[in-house]
Amino acid sequence: MKKLRYGIIGAGGCGAGKHLASYSLLPDDIQIIAVCDIRGERADQMADAYNAEASYTDYKEMLKNEKLDLVSVATPNHMHAPAAIAALQAGCHVHCEKPASLTPALVQSMVDAKNQSGKKLMIGLNNRFTNWAQLAKKWVEAGRLGEIYHAKCGWKRRRGIPGKGGWFTTKAQSGGGPLIDLGVHFLDVSNYLMGFPEPVAVSGQTYSKFADKQAFNPNASGYTGTYDVEDLAVGLIRYANGCTMELEFSWASNIEEEYTYVELYGDQGGLRFAKAQLTLIEDFNGTILKTAPVLRNDENWGNVETRHFVHCIRKDEEVLARPEEAVIIMNMICGLYQSAAKGKEVKLKN
Ligand SMILES: NC(=O)c1ccc[n+]([C@@H]2O[C@H](COP(=O)([O-])OP(=O)(O)OC[C@H]3O[C@@H](n4cnc5c(N)ncnc54)[C@H](O)[C@@H]3O)[C@@H](O)[C@H]2O)c1
Predict the structure, then answer these.
(1) pTM of model > 0.90
(2) Parts of the chain with a pLDDT under 70
(3) What is the whole-number distance in angstroms between the Cα of residue 114 and the centre of ligand 1?
(4) CA distances (Å), 281 to each of 94, 194, 217, 239, 315, in order?
(5) Whose Cα sits closest to atom 13 in ligand 1?
(6) N or C of the chain: less Cβ packing under 10 Å?
């Protein structure tokens, strides 16, 4: 079978460490043709590292010259929509990083471009592809939780502001702080497990307390530029079916330890994923049962997701991380930011 001609737009940490690394593991399906990064040196370096034929600093040039079949988009968030739409219009399938874009309207414009092109668009929501999430989904579908009436999710870092002063902390480029950066992962996987009930209202609060403090991620670029995003977001989502979800996401907090978790509360069972352990709590004739499966270690991030996307392209199947669902998640995230700005609950238009 003909190999897919592959190119990438944005060859930074995620572009190289996830996309190039995982697509390069599929030599029977993928021919890495071109690498594009606005930093020419980086584009050349990654093109050399992955034996690509060409490197570019302008993705429009790359799309015009290279007749690609498949393109990854791993730029800062504000470039996702324009780059993904250009690639779809150039006839490419697109694997775009999370968050899909900055607003629901922009994500919808990506969905529209996908539908017009007849190509596939998948968002890089790697948590859906993990062993724990796939087993949890089967438990939910088998009715082990019964009616899910509440959920909680969070990702709290003590000192983990990415690239402080760079694009991550510049709202015009990132769309926000940990809510859009980390929250998009766990809001997505929680809603996926719950079967995407319709969200109707959100109430959020954000805090920005670390802009002027020197305590930052030692890998970060240093605080020399903009910091106009939150470093802690908390909130509540209400759904049409009466279900609720609490959330908390931070890049920096004075806490004893860092943690991530997803909890689903059902009237038959409760599910928790935290500290790499999935647990199911059920009542069996008055006795509480705890199931703690021994899961295979997940493969390196991106590999399962990338193989899945290539499989969907080859077999013309629906992708697991659908951009239509990213519109719903972005609606919640932007609603939470609006609620924080207004200081009151916001009703969502779906
Ligand atoms: N799925 C995950 O868990 C995960 C993890 C990390 C990052 N990401 C996402 O990946 C994206 C990139 O994040 P990162 O950490 O790699 O950032 P990064 O800053 O390391 O890399 C971004 C790269 O894009 C390049 N770039 C900027 N504008 C461009 C343009 N117009 N054309 C071509 N290249 C351009 C930059 O020069 C840089 O090399 C973000 O959307 C981020 O949210 C996802």
Answers:
(1) yes
(2) 212-224
(3) 21
(4) 39, 17, 36, 24, 38
(5) 14
(6) N
